[in-house]
Amino acid sequence: MKRFLVTLAVAWGLLISPALHAQPQPGPGANRPGANPPDANPPDANPNEGAAIAETDPLAPFNTKMFWFNRKLDDYFLHPVATGYAKVVPEPARRSVGRFIDNVSVIPRFANNLFQLRLKQAGTEVARFGINTTVGLAGLFDPADWWFGLKENPDDFGLTLGRYSVPTGPYLMLPFFGPSTIRDAVGRVADGAMNPMSYLLPWYITIPATGGEDVVDAINYRSLNPDLFEDVDRFSIDVYAAVQDGYTQRRAAAQNTVNTDSLLPK
Predict the structure, then answer these.
(1) 16 alpha carbon, distance to own chain's centre
(2) DSSP H or E stretch at residue 174
(3) Per residue of the chain (266 residues), what is the pLDDT tens digit?
(4) Is 112 part of a structural domain of the chain?
């Protein structure tokens, strides 16, 4: 769910950029599922347009239903809970919670940077974890960045697969987790398998613990970004297409960074 919210924030930033408001022309998602329906008999109708949409988003019937589900989950659970949470917990404490969760999620970042032969980034993740776990009080604070300029290097197995030229596959909207692709969904499973709790504790402990961490992370992130959907809805845009485009662009930029930094042959 946090990925869904992060992507919405990216999409919102793209949509309010000056270039997108230069001329009031339909965006690239104007005819995707969830957009306002076109005229019954448009003068320049293209008989191949529906086929083109199906080709770019072949899972659209499933995706739009899951998108609706995630929106309702936010409306009736995530947003109300995050609003109440924000009233009780001050913002500095909520930001510390986010840093703590990022700190304990170091293994997939380290491992994937290593798989991609991004050795500097992998070493930085080890150094950040050591500094923030000790001096930063288990990751509640980020002295590795504040004092030493060691930035986090987000990474995942979906990007690792991309570095080895595995195609993304169709766009996929996952329930609870938000936008993805077939490749990134496989990568999410691989990243989850890197959790050492899966091998040290029984499943009836690891599954609730991992799920609870995801829920807390999503609620915490939502509490720090209370107006995501409200701002988007105010402009009556095709939110489904905005999230899809935002996710696709964000992942393409991340993949480009990975490919540029990797020591693997181009």
Answers:
(1) 19
(2) strand 171-174
(3) 666 565 555 554 455 444 333 333 333 443 344 444 334 444 444 444 344 455 679 999 999 999 999 999 999 999 999 999 999 999 999 999 999 999 999 999 999 999 999 999 999 999 999 999 999 999 999 999 999 999 999 999 999 999 999 999 999 999 999 999 999 999 999 999 999 988 889 989 999 999 999 999 999 999 999 887 776 666 657 889 989 999 999 999 999 999 999 998 87
(4) yes
Distance from CA of residue 21 to its chain's centroid? 25
Query: Half-sphere exposure of 250 toward its Cβ, with a 13 Å CA cutoff?
Result: 25
Secondary structure element (H or E) that encloses residue 100, with its range:
helix 91-104
- 3 vs 125, 170, 222, CA distance in Å? 21, 17, 11
Mind giving me the DSSP string for 39-63? -SS-TT--TTHHHHHHHH-TTHHHH
* Cα distance between residue 228 and residue 249, in whole Å: 18
pTM above 0.90, yes or no: no
Q: Is residue 110 part of a domain?
A: yes
In 3-state terms, what secondary structure has residue 179? strand
Parent domain of 211: 2-16+64-261
Comparing CA positions, the residue from 16, 37, 61 lying closest to residue 173 is 61
Query: What is the C-alpha to C-alpha distance for residues 76 and 63, in angstroms, rounded to an integer?
Result: 20
Domain count, the chain: 1
Q: Quick one: which of 29, 23, 91 has its CA closest to 232?
A: 29
Residue bearing tokens 């691989």: 190
Q: Give the C-alpha separation, 169 to 181, whole Å.
A: 6
Which token pair is 103? Answer: 């700190």
Tokens of 206: 């690891």
Q: Is residue 36 part of a domain?
A: no
In a domain, 55, yes or no: no
